[in-house]
Amino acid sequence: MEFIFILLAVAVIFIYFFRKDIKEKIRPARQKNYTIDDRYNSEKREREKEIDTLLSKMKNNGVGDLTEKELNRLNELSKK
């Protein structure tokens, strides 16, 4: 009888610590299907935000305030 309780306790502890893995195997998370257009538009918005950030920094403080890395990134983004 004690053996059953110990076995049950071990099973409950095992399930508790591995509950995320068990849930993922039973009911996997759905992956969103994005179209190529959605991905392109998302990347384009991210590039535009980055360019806007760099340009606003340049507007407020001048070109000399941008680091060499930021200037290279601005040139790279402007070519795309």
SS field, number of helical segments = 4
Distance between the termini: 72 Å
Percent of residues in helices = over 70%
Global mean pLDDT: 86
How are helices and strands ordered from N to C? Answer: HHHH
Low-pLDDT ranges:
none
**Rg (C-alpha, Å):** 26 Å
| Net shape | elongated
In a few lines, what is going on in this structure?
By secondary structure, the protein is mostly helical. It has helices at 2-17, 19-26, 36-61, 68-79.
Structure description:
This protein is mainly α. The chain folds into two domains: 1-30; 38-80. It has helices spanning 2-17, 19-26, 36-61, 68-79. Helix 3 crosses helix 4. The longest helix has 26 residues, at 36-61. The radius of gyration is 26 Å and the shape is elongated. The termini are far apart.
Task: Give the SSE map.
Blueprint: H1 2-17, H2 19-26, H3 36-61, H4 68-79
Helix pairs in contact: 3-4
Considering the chains and any ligands shown, give keywords for the structure.
80 residues, mainly alpha, 2 domains, elongated
